[in-house]
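Q: I'm teaching a short session on how sequence maps to structure, and I want students to see two examples side by side rather than one. Could you give me a first protein with its sequence written out and its structure tokens following it? Keep the formatting plain so it prints cleanly on a handout.
A: Of course. Example one:
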Amino acid sequence: MNKKFLTIGAAAFAAAIALAGCATPGAGSGSTPGSTHGSPGMDHGTPAASEHTAPGSSAPAATEHNAADTVFAQSMIPHHAQAVEMSGIVLAKKELPAAVRSLAERIKAAQAPEIEVMTGWLKDWNEPVPSSTGMSGHDMGGGSSAMAGMMSEADLDKLKAAQGTEAARLFLTQMIAHHEGAVTMAKAEAAGGSNPGAIKLSQGIAATQQGEIQEMRKLLAAL
């Protein structure tokens, strides 16, 4: 069952959200689009995650969700897990530019706690929880990945083998694509989800990772 959710493609993600919108008209009305999530580059996990470390423990509405919320959490858990893995790979290298090391540390620190938050939501919603380990390279053939922005095993092998400036450049290139996939998924949840906590987290992910994409492009141009 878990494998099924780990290979959700972009088309399936969009279809699930469309169905959720039909089933629960106005479901997103409880979102807070005007809420702030900090400036780009900040730890987006802190404001959203700190309020939902024990989902459903205080607010009765915490377990209310639709199909888009479920798909968002089930997809973003392995997506975040791979970002944490990629950051760990590059942080283990010597002679890594300080700015790239700092970025990798921030990504790892922000996304690891969010995995725990989303796992808690799925458990409270009585929905299947995908594994947050062994997410390396969901390679569907031809080097492509089933989930938006996910790296293949071959991609991760290249990152593991690279050193110094080459490793920094490869990490930034791969993480830009990875972040772009996460932003697409997060925006879809913000538009089609119904759970306030999931919507808030998705908005924070989109805002922060868009800022980090710009930061990574600048770092890449300077290498």
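Q: Perfect. Now a second example for contrast.
A: Example two:
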Amino acid sequence: MGKVYLIGAGPGDPGLMTLKGKGLLECADVVIYDALVSPPILAMINPQAEKIDAGKRRGRHSLMQSQTTQLMIEKAQTHAIVVRLKGGDPFIFGRGGEEMEELITSGVSVEVVPGITAGIAAPAYAGIPLTHRDHSSSVTFVTGHECAGKYRPAINWPAIAHGSQTIVIYMGIHNLPYIVQQLTEAGLSLDTPIALIRWGTRSQQEELIGQLETIVEQVESTGFEAPAIVVIGKVVNMQSILNQLRVKS
């Protein structure tokens, strides 16, 4: 019986891949990878390794979750090093906890190699600090996609609205009108700054900056699409300041 490594590939920039993760990719026998893993990171994989696309995107599934887990179990029976390569971090909205639990139940040895999650990296590359002594001393990470299975409870958006000074939403573009409505009805001001960051840390990264009152209209008028991270809070205002400094440097 081999071992399965749940590895976080980070948000896309190959420079953000951990050294431990890179080393395991270079000696892996099998790599089962997700849709959002960037091509430069896939290029790090051992050329002799078996590569399997298990990507999941909205409306498109290469493999169902149960099939992916079963595949890892089967590959671990015949290969020493099996890598499950996941975008971002395995344990931050990556279903890594579910996969680890099922592998252990099946008697498969598992090790987790953390990755840099997009909710931290994308705002940083956009010039948005999630915390700032003058603006935010707390951050909440939340998924904006509530209909991916019975395992996920409904999100208490009123509690999220008042729970911290910065809100980071994964997979929030498709439900953005509903999310904005929920947050504003819970008391967030319509002029609260919001940033949408698409393809964070990659060469094609782009940002859409606005306020809760106008952001849905901006998305519709520009055709801004997923995958993107949503950041809500006063820290978004830092983006213009830090961008000016980056241009000057």
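Q: What should students look for in example two?
A: Point them to this: The mean pLDDT is 91. Also worth mentioning: The chain has two domains: 3-113, 118-248.
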